[in-house]
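dumping this here so i dont lose it
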């Protein structure tokens, strides 16, 4: 049963205490009751506020271990406020906005929290796109003087797949070494069905689709009266909304290093844009926050260059 606050007033009344947040998190993590990860026993005794000791093997299990809340020293009430604020805002929030709303001590804390939440916006084992899927690629970035086509160094190339029923996937090409092994960024594992594509863009990810046996129909642009947005309306709508979102919420200041996680957030929002309740998005985010591996601040910023080239948006 999906259990979530319907309004902001409902949220405030329900999650005003740490105990209430812990009980909700317990319900989300173990909807059918506690199960020991070692022996599978359903019996456990509470030790401290977030600890259970298994009656079968004696293992101590933390409510927040193995989730994005692992090792946090911040009360869950503040984390819940952050998740509500992030999902309640239709176009998302910036790190500066989150810092101001929650009164966090530093911009870096708000920035790291948002990146942890973005990692929870990809549901493990999510369904592939199906049916007829439009596939194309686009560059994110401003104009570069004297540079045309693929000769760019500042722009970021991304792949966009849009399903007839309205869902999408957005990510850098699967050849990106940062994305290898992540199902959400492996295009041939990301969707099934018939893809429409520009015939002049025979890239590795297209060949990978063909090798996997997926059918595809070619959309010819040359000699057609229709514009590209008319021939492939769904994928062009996604690209248009993505660029508008990057400008409006993040002022286009998104680095190449972290772009894929911003795309995760956009996809999470786009695929749930028809939801009648912001509370349901909050519910989904909490569900996924306990299902993904924990992420430390150091791992988020590891290998980040001293000066990152931001992805401007035309």
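and the seq i came up w/
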């Amino acid at each position: 049963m999906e259990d979530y606050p319907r309004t902001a007033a409902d949220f405030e009344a329900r999650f005003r205490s740490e105990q209430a947040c812990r009980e909700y998190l317990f319900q989300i993590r173990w909807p059918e009751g506690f199960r020991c990860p070692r022996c599978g026993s359903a019996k456990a005794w509470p030790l401290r506020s977030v600890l259970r000791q298994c009656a079968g093997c004696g293992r101590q299990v933390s409510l927040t271990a193995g989730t994005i809340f692992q090792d946090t020293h911040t009360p869950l009430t503040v984390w819940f406020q952050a998740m509500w604020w992030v999902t309640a805002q239709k176009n998302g929030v910036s790190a500066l906005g989150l810092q101001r709303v929650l009164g966090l001590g530093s911009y870096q804390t708000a920035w790291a929290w948002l990146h942890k939440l973005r990692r929870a916006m990809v549901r493990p084992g999510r369904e592939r796109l199906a049916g007829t899927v439009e596939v194309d690629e686009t560059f994110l970035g401003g104009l570069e003087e004297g540079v045309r086509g693929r000769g760019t160094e500042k722009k970021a190339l991304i792949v966009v797949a849009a399903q007839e029923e309205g869902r999408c996937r957005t990510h850098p090409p699967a050849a990106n070494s940062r994305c290898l092994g992540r199902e959400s960024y492996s295009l041939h594992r990301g969707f099934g069905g018939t893809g429409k594509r520009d015939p002049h863009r025979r890239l590795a990810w297209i060949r990978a689709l063909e090798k996997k046996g997926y059918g595809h129909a070619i959309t010819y642009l040359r000699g057609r009266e229709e514009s590209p947005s008319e021939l492939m309306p769904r994928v062009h709508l996604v690209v248009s909304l993505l660029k508008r979102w990057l400008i409006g919420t993040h002022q286009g200041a998104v680095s190449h290093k972290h772009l894929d996680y911003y795309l995760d957030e956009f996809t999470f929002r786009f695929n749930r844009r028809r939801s009648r309740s912001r509370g349901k998005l909050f519910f989904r985010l909490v569900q996924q926050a306990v299902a993904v591996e924990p992420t430390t601040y150091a791992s988020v910023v590891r290998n980040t260059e001293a000066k990152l080239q931001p992805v401007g948006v035309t």
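The first helix runs from residue 8 to 14.
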